[in-house]
Amino acid sequence: MTKSQAAKAFLELSAQLRHEGLLSESLSVKAALRGEDGEIFFAELSGADMTMQEITTGEQQEPFFHAFYVKPEAKALLLLSGTYALKIANELRALTAELDDMAQIVGLTARVASALTPEEIARCLRGRNSCFVRNEGMLITGRAVSEAVTGAILLEKAAMTHILAKKIGGAKRVPLFSAALMHFIYQKKYSKINLGAEEQKTQEQQSTAAGAPEQTEREREIRAAIVAYGRRLQDEGLLQGTWGNLAVRLDESYMLCTPSGLDYRILTPDDIVKVELSTLDYGTQRKPTSEKRMHRDIFASRADVGAVIHTHSKLCGVFAAARANICCIEGERKTLIGEEMRCAGHALPSTKKLSKVALGALGNRNGCLLMNHGVICCGADLERAYLACKAAETAAGQQLGV
């Protein structure tokens, strides 16, 4: 990594953190990047300012650099306060995973380091990618800059969920077996798809995209729309990283859906997967979202639904973690979603049981919650499904009083 490459990466990093409200005039960030040859670049980000330096052996005075030794696979480190994260860091000894996405990327718990020392960093990052730090906020490691940013977003979201859920009875932890299984799958398999694509799409992946079935003009339009709505949902904070997925009914035989494990920022129309509804077969294309069965089953049970969006939106996530319904939805939001959003029972992602509990909670409405997981919204087309997602988040915020 050259100095100019590091500077560009830091500028992109600061833009993403600022967009997420994790960097501002009052919230500063310390960031470090490690190149392939072991060189370290360090930057302090504050508002619109950035100072950067290259660190050589013997100059590594910042205590949080020790995380590179604890996590040798890490390429990026972030030390930032957040808003809710700092409260958790100063109130708890550890935060248990109360949403699936935290379980996947962080682990079963996020420990709290009592101080930013090598010993505490080693203790709190053992078996985990991130932790809280008393009086500091959170320490995040990532195998790429994007993974570190997503980790920061999700840990701040987890802290917010824990605090706001107290208003509606408190959040419940993700069942231990489910949390452990999802973390293992994410670390060993799921995340590597996106990390590899970030560096460069391999020849194998390119040939897979080239082997996709021939597309009609309508199909090309839908593919482009899925990409556009995915990015819009991410920009508006309703999706984070590779979490969440979209599907559109193409005709009586096929649906189009987002691929598995690919960040929406690097998604292209050719990455969208055409899946046969009856068999869930997708030939030699990219692997489709692991929730393809749930999307297919919603289409099968609801002739009025032409598009389904599964999000991990933040305020709806508070209700999913608390296993509570969003009630008394009124006005245009009631027209888009229904008078309430029920919370489905627990089920592992991508299973037949998840489809069953989701369909039961959805009924004839256009939105439901998935316990400790996220949100399902649907509509006649992508625009209506997107508006239902927005309406659901607004309704959640109103009920929480935020």
The CATH topology of the largest domain turns out to be L-fuculose-1-phosphate Aldolase
Give the strand content.
15-25%
For the largest sheet, list the strands in their spatial order. 3-2-1-4-8-7-6-5
- What's the story with the biggest beta sheet? 8 strands, mixed
Write up this protein.
- The chain is α+β, with helices and mostly antiparallel strands and 402 residues long.
- 42% of the residues lie in helices and 18% in strands.
- It has two domains: 3-178, Class II aldolase/adducin N-terminal domain (L-fuculose-1-phosphate Aldolase); 216-400, Class II aldolase/adducin N-terminal domain (L-fuculose-1-phosphate Aldolase, 3-Layer(aba) Sandwich).
- It has 14 helices and 15 strands.
- The chain has an eight-stranded mixed β-sheet with strand order 3-2-1-4-8-7-6-5.
- Helix 10 (292-301) packs across helix 13 and helix 11 (314-322) packs across helix 14.
- The termini are far apart.
- The model is unreliable at 200-210 (pLDDT under 50).
